[in-house]
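Case study 2.
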Amino acid sequence: MPSHIKTSSSVTAQERSPSDNDTCHEKRCVNGWVNDARQCESPHFNGRPLNEVSLLVIHNISLPAGCFGKPYIDQLFKGCLDVSADPSFIDLKGLEVSAHFLIRRDGELVQYVSCDERAWHAGVSSYGFREGCNDFAIGVELEGTDTQAYTDLQYRELKMLTLALFDAYPMLNTDRVVGHCDIAPGRKTDPGESFDWQRFKKDLT
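Prediction:
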């Protein structure tokens, strides 16, 4: 288990007090879809081989790198990225990727794939003794970079989303939230040093 996500006790939906739940009553995940997310459906998904959801993976993304608020993340995940819009996009031509969620800098939550389906976000990856984390993981992208601080609105939305997912998927808990860097070490670094794991884990308790 990565050191930055260890806790003395795992927190599940059943263990939280009613007052802890007050801030997330409005957010619910039903049949794989979160009620207050903007839906922007991606064709890049397939079925989960074991119908299992037991891991939450936090990523970051910005297109172009370091630029925020642009339409290109939606385009990438929908498979319609205009690669002529920026010279750096040429390497993304034909790429078929997706995440379940994106949280933008202003806190907007976007959902691309049902949580009950397998989005294509983790790539070559492993958690514990299991390879292929896409099979059993939910992927959440934060609009950002490894070195630029995430916004308060992003942390708030990530907290509420995570608690809603804990409610919907009993195998998820605070010990099963990791960064992309943890399941693909040496290949990926996100969400990076700018992500405050201590703050996030405290928010969940």
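Residues 152-168 form the longest helix (17 residues).
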